[in-house]
Amino acid sequence: MYYAQVNQQATHTSRVITVTGNGQVKATPTSAQLQIEVQTQGNNVQVPQQENAIIMNQVIQSLIALGIPREQIQTTSYTITPLYKFEDGKQIFNGYEVINAVAVNVTNTDDLGIIIDTAIENGANRIASIQFNIDHTDAYYQQALRVALQNAQL
């Protein structure tokens, strides 16, 4: 069937205005977490394990002597990995590697330099990461949102 006069409704296009605003707020970190590691190697597994334990205990005691509470020093990983080298296309066993990692929570970020120096001086041979933290991030987010809204209205 064919209807010659079909009423078609005109589609109404919506009119939209998009506004963008930028807001930035700076904040000083209130704490930090360091990952300090001791890495040792040896031909059999016992020697690097023992050496690693002695060095890590020395590192931990030196951090405690700086005034860092023992509860703020936590073991995060302990790995033993066989090592291999390749000669003439052949895999040859080359001993073991032991890595012991601790996370140190620091409430005074001004002390980071002395903490790193002390750990290194006492046998740590890797600083794997430093993560800065800010308390009450929601307040800073809300402040940045207000600044962005003001910027968008300009």
Please give a structural write-up.
Strand 2 and strand 3 (90-106) form a beta hairpin. The mean pLDDT is 92. The protein is built from 3 helices and 4 strands, in the order βαββαβα. A 4-stranded antiparallel beta sheet has the order 2-3-1-4, covered by helices on one side. Helix content is 31%, strand content 34%. The relative contact order is 0.27. With 154 residues, the chain is of the alpha+beta class. The chain is elongated, with a radius of gyration of 29 Å.
Which band does the percent of strand residues land in? 25-35%
Class by SSE composition: alpha+beta
Alpha carbon gyration radius? 29 Å
First-last Cα distance: 58 Å
Task: Characterize this entry briefly.
By secondary structure, this protein is of the alpha+beta class. The chain has helices spanning 46-65, 112-121, 137-153; strands at residues 31-42, 73-87, 90-106, 126-133. The radius of gyration is 29 Å and the shape is elongated.
Secondary structure blueprint with pairings:
Elements: E1 31-42, H1 46-65, E2 73-87, E3 90-106, H2 112-121, E4 126-133, H3 137-153
Antiparallel strand pairs: 1-3, 1-4, 2-3
Give descriptors for this structure.
single chain, 154 residues, alpha+beta, four-stranded antiparallel sheet, 3 helices, 31% helix
